[in-house]
C-alpha cells in the first residue's frame, strides 16, 4: 500500500495563455470612410485659417506706425542764437554753438569777437536795445532832407583831413578852434559859455559803435551814442534822415534836435551826423552839435554836411 501511494503521478497544472487586452474604443480603421474624409477636411480648414491669420497679422505689423517717429525739421533745427538780452530763441546748450555776447550785456567775459559786431546775433541785440531806448524814436519811414538852419555860415579855410577815418571836412576860421582830439581823431569847438559846460562840438572818427548791415541802421546807433555828449536827460527828435553820396561812396545823414534841461530850464541843441562807407575797417563818422545858446552858428551844420569829402 505504501508503494502505490508514492508512485502515483501528480495532476498537471495548466496555465491558460494571457488574453489580449480589451479595447475601450474603436480605432480609425473601425470608422466609416466618410467620417475619415470629414476629419481630414476639417483639419485642412483649421490650418488654412491659421496661416491666413498669420499673414494678416504680419502685414498689419508692417503697416503700423513706429513707436519712435522721425522728428520733423522744426524739431531738429538748431536753436536760434540770442535775439535779445538774456533771451534766446531756444536752449542754446543743445545746439553745440556758443553764442557771442552782446556788447550791451556788459559781461567781462564777453568774446573778443563781440567788438566787431559782424554776427547777426550781436547786430540784432544792439539794434533791439536801441529801438527800445525811450530817449529816441524810430527813424522816419520816408527820407527827409536836412533843411536850411538858422544863422549865418562861418567862413572855412580849406579842409581838415582825418587820415584815420578816411574823410575830410571844412576847417572853420575865427570862432571855431582846433582842440585836442582824443578820444576822437579831429575836434573843433566853439568858445565856452558862462554858466554851462555845453558848447558847439564838431568831431570825426571811425564809428564807435557796432557796424550794421545797413548804413542807415549804423547811423541810427551812432546818433544814440552821441547822447553821451549831451546832458543825461537828453532825448532826440528827428529832423532829417536821408541817403548821402560822397564821391563814389554811400552814406547816411541824420539831423535831429536834442532836448534837455539845464538848472531846471528847457534847452535844445541842433545836431547832425553823417556815416560814410570809406571802404575801411569801419565807416567814418562826422558829428556836429550846437546848443541854442550858440544858435547863431546853426547854419555851420549845413556847411559841414554838404562839404564832406572821402580821402
Provide the helix percentage.
10-25%
Q: Give the structural class.
A: alpha+beta
Please indicate the percent range of residues in DSSP E strands (runs of 2 or more): 15-25%
CATH superfamily membership of one domain: Mog1/PsbP, alpha/beta/alpha sandwich
Distance between the termini: 173 Å
- Quote the average pLDDT: 74
Question: How many H/I helices?
Answer: 6
Uncertain runs are: 1-8, 21-26, 46-120
In the CATH hierarchy, the third-tier topology of one domain is known as Protein Transport Mog1p, Chain A
Radius of gyration: 50 Å
User: Any idea what the CATH architecture of one domain is?
Assistant: 3-Layer(aba) Sandwich
Q: CATH first level of one domain: which class?
A: Alpha Beta
Instruction: State the order of secondary-structure elements, H for helix, E for strand.
Output: HHHHEEEEEHEEEEHE
Keywords: Membrane, Transmembrane, Transmembrane helix
Characteristics of this structure?
Protein Transport Mog1p, Chain A, three-stranded antiparallel sheet, seven-stranded antiparallel sheet, alpha+beta, globular, 311 residues, disordered N terminus
Give the SSE map.
Blueprint: H1 2-6, H2 33-63, H3 73-76, H4 120-131, E1 156-162, E2 167-172, E3 177-178, E4 186-189, E5 201-206, H5 215-226, E6 235-246, E7 249-262, E8 265-276, E9 284-291, H6 299-306, E10 309-310
Antiparallel strand pairs: 1-2, 2-10, 3-4, 4-5, 5-9, 6-7, 7-8, 8-9
Keywords: Membrane, Transmembrane, Transmembrane helix
Transmembrane segments: 35-57
Region (Disordered): 1-28
